[in-house]
Amino acid sequence: MFEVVTYSVGGFDCYSLLYRPLSRVPFISWHNPKYCCPRCAGVQWKPASGVKVKLYDVDRTDMDDLMDEGVSDSEGRFELKGHETEFTTIDPKVNIYHDCNDENVPCLKKVAIVIPDTYVTEGEVPRKTFDAGKLNLAGTFSGESRIALIKKTDRS
């Protein structure tokens, strides 16, 4: 959005074209639970509760911006939303940190899910919801990594 601003300096009128960055908002919702594997649960298909999730705006030139974070509920569900003021559209992703099928390894698995641009809206109030559906965390994901920065005992 462009805005023309007029101001006076010593009797001369000056015009300035200002570019005001737009605030861009993604709203991420997991209405269907994430599931852990039977081996983790000791029973068949337990919801993955207590899983750390973080919503980022991916930046190419500096560190990614953390927009929101949370923990999945007892049914494996979570909702995240956030906004960033940028000159261009934001590139949101959700990182999921878990230890499904991996309880005895000290580091958590990290899975990143890129949110499509069609779910990014202008303003600070989200107008669209990205529902990622069910996700079985027992599998291996492309680009999956491990992270030791989050202790398994410190997920809140």
From TrEMBL:
Pfam families: TTR-52
Keyword Transport part of the UniProt annotation: no
Key words, A-Z: Secreted, Signal
Subcellular location: Secreted
Leader sequence segment: none
Domain of life, source organism: Eukaryota
Record has Ribonucleoprotein as a keyword: no
InterPro entries in the cross-refs: Transthyretin-like, Transthyretin-like_sf
A cellular component term, taken from the record's GO annotations: cell surface
Family: Belongs to the nematode transthyretin-like family.
Name by which UniProt lists this protein: Uncharacterized protein
Organism classification: Eukaryota, Metazoa, Ecdysozoa, Nematoda, Chromadorea
